[in-house]
Amino acid sequence: MTNNSLKKNVTFIEAMAIVVGMIIGSGVFLKPGIVLQSAGSPFMAILAWVAGGVITLASALAIAEIAAAIPKAGGLYTYLTELYGETFGFLLGWVQTIISYPASVAALAIAFSTYAGFFLPMNDVQQKILAVAVLAFILLMNILSTKYGGIIQTVATVGKLLPIAAIIIFGLASGSAFEVISVNSSAQGTGFGAAILGTLWAYEGWISVTNMAGELKNPAKDLPKVISSGVIFVIAVYAIFNIAIFKSLPLEQIISSKTPAADAAVELFGSNGAIFITAGIMVSVFGALNGFLMTGARVPYAMGEKNMLPFSNMLSKIHPKFQTPANSLAVQGALAVIYIMSGTFNTLTDLLVFVLWIFFVMGVYGVFILRKKYPQEKGLYKVPFYPVTPIIGIVGGAYILISTVMDSPINSLVGIAITLLGLPVYYYINKKNK
Predict the structure, then answer these.
(1) DSSP assignment string, 24-78
(2) In this structure, which long-range contacts are made by residues 377-385, counting pairs with CB atoms below 8 Å and at least 24 apart in sequence?
(3) Checking CA distances to 377, which of 12, 62, 121, 384 falls within 20 to 30 Å?
(4) Are the C-beta atoms of 247 and 77 separated by less than 8 Å?
C-alpha cells in the first residue's frame, strides 16, 4: 500500500462536466422515437422523460447524503463496503474493475469509430484500430494529468451541448404546431412504464462522479451540489430537447426513424444537419468515454489501497511525477482494448445490467443504514423529504430490476454467476491478508 494520495485538483465545474457528460451520451439523440412509441403521445412522452428524471434525481439525492458523509475515493464500492461490509463492496468493485467500466469504455470507443464512419468509411478492422487509437489518446491524457482529463471532460460536455442547444432553439422557434394526439392506444399502463424504462437508461452515469470524491477540493460540500444540480440540468435538457423534436417532425417519422435527432437537424438546417448531429454525437461519445475511463480507474485504485485485489500494490501506486493513478488507468485501458478486439463489450455490459442495478438499489437504501450506523453530523447535506425521496429511488430501481428479469432472465442469472466468481478471489485475498 502506498502512502501517497491523489491530489485534490478536480474543480466544481469539472465535476459538473463529469455528471452531465456521462449522463448525456448518444441516448438523447436516438431514444425520442422509442420513448414516444411506448408512451403513446408527445405529452406522455415528455412526462416519461420527466418521471425518469425524478426517479434518477431521488436516487441521486439519497446517494449524495452518503457521499457527503463518506467523501472517499471509490464511490459506490466504498459506500457498500462501509454500510454493508467488505463482501458486498468487493463484489461490486470486482465486476466494475474486471468488466463493467472497461467494457463500457470499449463500447463507447467502438461507438465513436462507428459514427466516424459517416465521414470516413472504414471496415471492421479499421474501426477497431481507430477505437484503440482514441482510447490510447484519452488514456495518455489522463495518465499525464487528472487536469487534462478534467479539461477534456469540460470541453466535450460543452461541445455535445451545442447541437442539442441548436435543435432546441430552432426547433422551438419553428412554425410547426406541437401535436398532442395519441400515436397508438398504449398510452396507459405498460406502455408508459416501458417509456419510463427507456428514459432511465438515458439517465445512467451520474453516480460515477462519486468515484472521484477523494480528488474534489471539498467533497462533502460539493458532491451533493454537483450531483443534484447536474441531474436537474439534464432533466430540463431532455424534456425541452424532446419538445423541439416533436415540433420539428411528424410523429410517425419520429417513431419510424432510428436517428430522430439527425432527421430533425436535416429538417431544421438542411442537408448539413446530419453532419452537424453526427459530429455532435461523436463529441458526446468522446466525452462519455473520457468520463468512464477517468472515473472507472478510481475503483481498482481504491480497492488496491485496501489491499482487496490481486496486485494491489501496483494498482494503488500513484505516478511519482504526474500524481495520477497511472497503473489503474493502464489496467482499465488494457482490458478495454481486449474487449474492443474480441467484440464482447455489448454482451458483457448486457449481462451485468441486472447485477449493477442490485448494487445501485442497495446504495440508495444505504441512506437508511447510514442514519442508523453513523451519528448525524451538523452542517452536512441531508436528503430532502426523507424518507419519501429515497423510497422513490428504490421503487424506480426495483422496477428496472423486475423489467430486466422479465426481459432477460438468462442474462440476469449469468450476470449473478459472473459476480459470484469474485467470491473465491475475495476469500483468497482475505486469507492472504490475514
Answers:
(1) -SSHHHHSHHHHHHHHSSHHHHHHHHHHHHHHHHHHHHHHHHHHHHS--TTTHHH
(2) 377/69, 380/65, 380/68, 380/69, 380/220, 381/64, 381/65, 381/68, 381/220, 381/221, 381/224, 382/65, 383/61, 383/62, 383/64, 383/65, 384/61
(3) 12
(4) no
CB atoms within 10 A of CB 371: 16
Could you read off the pLDDT of 152-196 as tens digits, one per residue?
Answer: 889 988 988 988 999 899 988 876 656 555 555 444 445 888 888
Q: What cell numbers appear for 212 in the block?
A: 472521484
DSSP output for 263-317: HHHHHHHTTHHHHHHHHHHHHHHHHHHHHHHHHHTHHHHHHHHTT-STTHHHHTP
Question: Do residues 255 and 184 touch, judged by C-beta distance below 8 A?
Answer: no
For residues 248 and 176, give the distance between their C-alpha atoms in angstroms, rounded to a whole number.
Answer: 7
CA-CA-CA-CA torsion sign (13, 64, 299, 420): negative
CB neighbours of residue 295 within 10 Å: 24
Q: Going along 92-244, which residue ranges are E strands?
A: none
